[in-house]
Amino acid sequence: MGQIVGGYAAFGGLIDARPVVEALAASPLVDGLETPFRGGVIEVPAGAPDTWRYVVTLIPETMQRVGTDPTFGLASPDAAGRAGALDYLRTVHAAVRSAEVDVLAVELHSAPTRTADAAAFADSLAELAGWGWGRRRSSSSTATRGPTRTPSRRDSSRWPRSWTQPPGPGSACRSTGRAPSSRPVTPTPAWLTSVRPRAAGCCGG
After folding, report:
1. Is residue 115 part of a domain?
2. Cis preceding linkage at 45, omega within 30
3. Regarding predicted confidence, which is higher, 159 or 53?
4. Is the pTM here over 0.70, yes or no?
């Protein structure tokens, strides 16, 4: 089963990323990327096969926003700061729903660091769970990408269609689609692993 690679920090730009991305695409171990959501779009680097799937990370913009507003964050005890983070997630939600790439998960981060409140974070996650994160077909894409390469012939069907990544410190993931029958998971919205227990056997690795 292929792996999701978090190599975006080494890309240097969506077009400049082509040599790195094509090297990753040549490996049977890689079937997708962790990629940032920036400037209102899901970044897809040049050379990425059409069969790849993506875990969207919000950490770059989350840290930028905390840098300008120390109260910003889904775990903020400040009402305005938490509302600002939820407004930001509405932009992310719209992009994921209309994306023309296959989004496996969205990583959520519990800013702000020093004043984060667990109850505020749980309230934010509970609200996000009710938004409906499945893909909605659209004539316009909210993914930004460079030119693509010839799609990989590797069988993309081996990826589980419902995937929940074990949450790291201050993060949670959301899952879309369905799981193979051999790896059942709790139906959506159980992607909020910070709120509900992670279903057995549903990691993407």
Report:
1. yes
2. no
3. 53
4. no
